[in-house]
Amino acid sequence: xxxxxxxxxxxxxxxxxxxxxxxxxxxxxxxxxxxxxxxxxxxxxxxxxxxxxxxxxxxxxxxxxxxxxxxxxxxxxxxxxxxxxxxxxxxxxxxxxxxxxxxxxxxxxxxxxxxxxxxxxxxxxxxxxxxxxxxxxxxxxxxxxxxxxxxxxxxxxxxxxxxxxxxxxxxxxxxxxxxxxxxxxxxxxxxxxxxxxxxxxxxxxxxxxxxxxxxxxxxxxxxxxxxxxxxxxxxxxxxxxxxxxxxxxxxxxxxxxxxxxxxxxxxxxxxxxxxxxxxxxxxxxxxxxxxxxxxxxxxxxxxxxxxxxxxxxxxxxxxxxxxxxxxxxxxxxxxxxxxxxxxxxxxxxxxxxxxxxxxxxxxxxxxxxxxxxxxxxxxxxxxxxxxxxxxxxxxxxxxxxxxxxxxxxxxxxxxxxxxxxxxxxxxxxxxxxxxxxxxxxxxxxxxxxxxxxxxxxxxxxxxxxxx
Length: 467
Ligand code: ASP
Ligand code: MG
Fold this sequence. Notes:
Elements: E1 2-7, H1 15-28, E2 33-38, H2 44-56, H3 60-81, H4 85-112, H5 117-124, H6 126-141, E3 146-149, H7 151-154, E4 157-158, H8 169-185, E5 189-193, E6 196-199, E7 204-206, H9 212-222, E8 227-232, E9 253-255, H10 256-264, H11 276-281, E10 285-289, E11 298-301, E12 314-327, H12 337-347, E13 354-357, E14 363-369, H13 370-384, E15 391-404, H14 414-424, E16 431-434, E17 440-446, H15 450-460
Parallel strand pairs: 1-2, 1-8, 2-5, 3-5, 4-6, 8-10, 9-11
Antiparallel strand pairs: 6-7, 10-11, 12-14, 12-15, 13-14, 15-17, 16-17
Helix pairs in contact: 1-3, 1-6, 2-3, 3-4, 3-6, 4-6, 8-9, 12-13, 14-15
This protein binds aspartic acid and magnesium ion.
Residues 9, 39-40, 45, 127, 194-195, 209-213 line the site of aspartic acid.
């Protein structure tokens, strides 16, 4: 089997975990061709982001202090994780070159006092540059040949949209498959840095936060993998947040479209574009924990077996949002009202999470994150109040509760089950939306009611008995 295994940051933070991953990869590679993709060691990307913010604030000392923190973390893990002295020395030497470059990059950015999206991506790519060298050395240490490659080195070519780049798949496919097939033929495990690639001029680009998942599926699609495993510290996708619902269950199987919805709703943070490369190739993906490899995790496929087509598969909640009710008599029957509202919000850089308009057209309700609520209200007041808008009503601290499951499509009575469960708990619903795909039913309650709402839905649909 051709397998792409991606490890998240927490899976590769401690030396002993790195050693057991190396052992696992080694064992799997006896019967399979394995390509490993790695995130940065946990905390590293956050530190790199803080470095760029410190440079912006002209706080050189803070940037240097953070760089030392990154350097020490990687040195320490390397010393503990690699047993063979020869390999350890070689690794520390290679890392040292990266450390020197990292310090030089920071110096350069401080000197110029200029941080561009391009230099930021270059800086942020260091997390994966460092982690792959350690993981690859650990695999070699376990007795299996391995090399480390950055996204650029393996052949991921992207557009030049720094911070949010997209791969140019045809070029990428040619380059990546060539690089990896050569390594496979030499019985060598490639350890590839996630999150970053390079544009056609060779400048490093990144895919945005969480982008290593995306790298894993890009690689999987290029090498025609039979399966892709996303390994992290959670067992898979769950019916609800186990911190809220004690008897939440692991979902054994979901479809791509359900997983996309679940990823968006934060059940487990997965880069939103992760599924794109899989859909045409129909490559199955498993979401698993590196700390519990006996557990098969959640299987994500194009068409799950019919035995698992439950109406509702999971209920999730996103708290700390604000709701804006936009009203005005002159909104009724006026083409372009919605366009003006959303254009205003877009210009202010506000991401809108939920939208509904009642058929009388006299009000449009939207939900945005609490931390941009002020900015959103301000923009709407400045631009549109007294024109098409008569009144804005704002509610802070609301939660979106979302039910996901493709079995809801065409099933009669889902909404009535949802809202009678909510009513029994005397919870007030401020807004409801359902897309015509019927894949997702979402409603808004106060933050303080969100846990009881999630529990009530979980009970009403007996999600603890799902598999
Ligand atoms: N290291 C990057 C991040 O923390 C990419 C990833 O982990 O997927 O966002
Ligand atoms: Mg990550």
